Amino acid sequence: MPHSIAGSCSCGEVRFSTRTPSLFCGHCHCTMCRRNHGAGYVTWLIAARDRFSIDTGETALIRYPSSDHGTRSFCGRCGSSLFFESTHRPDQVDLVLANLDGPADLSPQAHVFFDDRADWVCVEDDLPRLGGPTGMEPVRTETPRTQPEGASHERRER
Fold first, then answer.
1. Residue 23's domain is classified under what CATH number?
2. Helix-strand-coil split of the chain, %, nearest 5
3. Which of 80, 90, 123, 136 is deepest in the core (most CB within 10 A)?
4. 34-72 residue pLDDT tens
5. Which pTM does this prediction carry?
């Protein structure tokens, strides 16, 4: 049964909600996500745009164009990373799973951009490992941890 899931930034200035069902949940290992969150990977819950709302604090949001197709939003007061939006998927909004106030309707389903993961990240679960140019193509369990020399890194980031 559909229900609402609320979330917020660390300081509570920005509050948002989404209605289930969610579209996907996954761990992203791309360079931009790692740098934006200061972590080995970030877990995203993807919501349909028409089920998502910013309930309070929209004026506190800072939107950063992180690529030619993507925008990352964070709280201008506390710095919490909150959303990722892409012109490649205009009908969806990616929400940082850790910012939800309660349980999501989906658990992580895969590791995306896995072939771009940090050397020091050890993953020992049985979730599918996806990568390649889109980040969503099956990859071998043992994949190179760095890009071949001369490869365009921009194509590998969300």
1. 2.170.150.70
2. 15, 35, 50
3. 80
4. 999 999 999 999 999 999 999 999 999 999 999 999 999
5. 0.86
